[in-house]
Amino acid sequence: ECINEKKRQKKKNYKNSGIVSVKHCEIVVECTFLDYIMGGCQLNFTVGIDFTGSNGDPRSPDSLHYLSPDGVNEYLTAIWTVGMVVQDYDTDKMFPVFGFGAQIPPSYQVSHEFPINFNPSNPFCNGIQGIVDAYRACLPQVRLYGPTNFSPIINHVARFAAAATQQQTASQYFILLIITDGVITDLDQTRTAIVNASKLPMSIIIVGVGGADFDAMEFLDGDNGVLRSSSGEPAVRDIVQFVPFRKFQISPKEALAQCVLAEVPQQVVNYFSTYKLLPPKNSAAK
Ligand SMILES: *[C@@H]1O[C@H](CO)[C@@H](O)[C@H](O)[C@H]1NC(C)=O
Ligand SMILES: *[C@@H]1O[C@H](CO)[C@@H](O)[C@H](O)[C@H]1NC(C)=O
C-alpha cells in the first residue's frame, strides 16, 4: 500500500493511494572468487611451453632454454613463480604440461601439443617440482623447431573446457599458462581460438620470456580494445593476460605472480555469474 501521509490526515475515508504488487522476485547470490573455490570449484592448471627454434639451441648459453649451472632459466622461473601461487587452488596438484614447436622422438615429426613427459595418456606432472623435473628431462630429447603455433594447445584445453560446460554448477575452470619467446606464427588461428574460448570457463596467461618484440602478445591481451577473430567475431569477454617476464627481472618474485594472476579471479567470477552457475557446495546461498 502506498500511503500519502498528507492525504490521510486530510481525508476521512482515505485508505491508500494505490497498491504495489510484486509479481516476481529473484534473489541473486553474488559469489566471490573465494566463494567458488571454497565451494568446490576446481581450477585445472595446464602449462604450455614454447620449444621453437627462435629460443636458441638449449646447449648455448644465449638460448632462453639454456639451463644455467644452478639449473634455472626464464622458463623455469616463470613456471615456479606462477605455479607456486596457482597450485594452492588446485586440489590434486597434478598438472598437464604440453610443449609445442619441437621435433619429438621417436620419429622427430614436429608437434604443436606434445606432453613433455611423452605420455599422452597421462600428461600429468606431480606438483610444480614434477613440472620442473619433466622439463629438464624433456629438453635434451627434443629438437627445437617451428613454426610457433599457439592455436593447437588453446584448442586442446578448450575441448576440456567445452566438456565442462555440461555441468550445472561452477565446478571446473581452466587456466592455460603459455610461456613463449613471443614470435607467433598462427596469429589468425590463435585469435579465432581465443574468441572461441572466451565463451568457455577458461583463461589464458601468456608469459613472454626473452627480449623479443611482444606486440602480437599485447594485441592478443585485448586490453586496448576487444579482440576479434579473423572473421571479425568479437570475444565475449577478455580472457587473456600477457606479462613480459623481463619487466619483473629485478622485482621480487611475488610481483610477477601478482601481475600474472591479477585478472584471473575476476575472469572466473565473471564467467560463472554470466552463466548463473553456483559453486557445487553452495555455502554462499545459505
Ligand atoms: C585438465 O585439462 C587438461 C587439458 O588441458 C586435461 O588433460 C586434464 O584431463 C584435465 N584434468 C581434469 C581433472 O579435468
Ligand atoms: C571452438 O571450440 C570448440 C570446442 O572446443 C571446437 O570444437 C572448435 O573446433 C573450435 N573452433 C575454432 C574455430 O577453433
From TrEMBL:
InterPro entries: Copine, Copine_C, VWF_A, vWFA_dom_sf. GO terms for biological process: cellular response to calcium ion; ERBB2 signaling pathway. GO terms for molecular function: calcium-dependent phospholipid binding; receptor tyrosine kinase binding. Residues 42-248 form the VWFA domain. GO terms for cellular component: plasma membrane. Signal peptide: none annotated. This is VWFA domain-containing protein. It comes from Meleagris gallopavo (Wild turkey).
